[in-house]
Amino acid sequence: MIEFSGVFKRYGQVLALDGLGVRIEPGRVTGLLGPNGAGKSTGMRILLGLDHPTSGQALIGGRRYGELSDPLRRVGALLDARGVHPGRSARNHLLGLARANGIAASRVEEVLDQVGIARIARRRAGTLSLGMGQRLGIAAALLGDPDVLILDEPLNGLDTDGVRWVRSLLRGLAAQGRTVLVSSHLLAEMHQTADHVVVIGRGRLLADCSTAKLVGDAADPVVVRSPNPGAAEVLRTRLPSAHITVGADGDPDALQVAGADEGAVGAAAHAGGLVLHHLARRTGTLEAGYLRLVDDEIEFAAERSEGAGHVAHAAQ
Q1: What is the pLDDT of residues 182-225, one digit of tens each?
Q2: Is it the case that residue 80 has pLDDT exceeding 80?
Q3: In the chain, at which end, N or C, are there fewer CB atoms within 10 A of the end residue's CB?
Q4: How much is the pLDDT for 173?
Q5: Residues 225 and 117 in one domain
Q6: For the chain, how big is the Rg over CA atoms in Å?
Q7: In a domain, 22, yes or no
Q8: Number of domains within the chain
Q9: Are residues 40 and 179 in the same domain?
Q10: How far apart are CA 263 and CA 271, in angstroms?
Q11: How far apart are CA 236 and CA 162, in angstroms?
């Protein structure tokens, strides 16, 4: 288990982490989400002993990273795929890590095959594309066959096949009972990959829940269309706890029902003798749920679309 307990981190006047407290459980992929400057990378660096908290603690299996006797076998991490000597070959980079940590050289060949770069293992790391560099970084994280994986933006530079491969890899590792923490700005991919999400903004915890819950909370209200006059009043009577408005989607004959799912709305319409021509709910997305949480926590926000449109128009 990974655990942050009341972690504060200050850089001068900047409060990067503001009492962060959260547990990352084994057996599932946990997505760490947040805007730029939210504190995601700071939290990972503190977790791996690369930085120190102002107060609080970050533990892996109940111990600080620096206290682990065999860290590469316990924790695999990718924070920066460019953190490799550019003159070393991919294989020699991994061999150096293996020898320094008492790992058999045969394991290097295994991870090269696992990440799909065995055929370019002789190439210098500095000549690798961003995507191949990411695969090398993931290979290094897997080298010690660790129980905990911590990956910061592992999808950068990967093509569609590479993204799909990482998704399968992470879910497979979690299915083996490992702890997998992955940070990414690719929310559509996190929707498909992460079982659980931790969302932070300005160093504070905003959400710690299943991906399904965050997506479900963002689902749009149910929209119905009925030729029956007074359909709104019928549904208000049958669904007293729901909020019903007329004129959904710019259609004066459409009703928007919040606070009830499709089944409840359909049952209420049937009981009230209403004919429905349409009953649907748009599927929620992780992006919608995420933006609903962080909209007021974005520190480095670009100009809104209205302003951007004005600038573009002026330039013409």
Answers
A1: 999 889 899 999 999 999 999 999 999 999 888 876 667 788 99
A2: yes
A3: C
A4: 96
A5: no
A6: 25
A7: yes
A8: 2
A9: yes
A10: 12
A11: 50
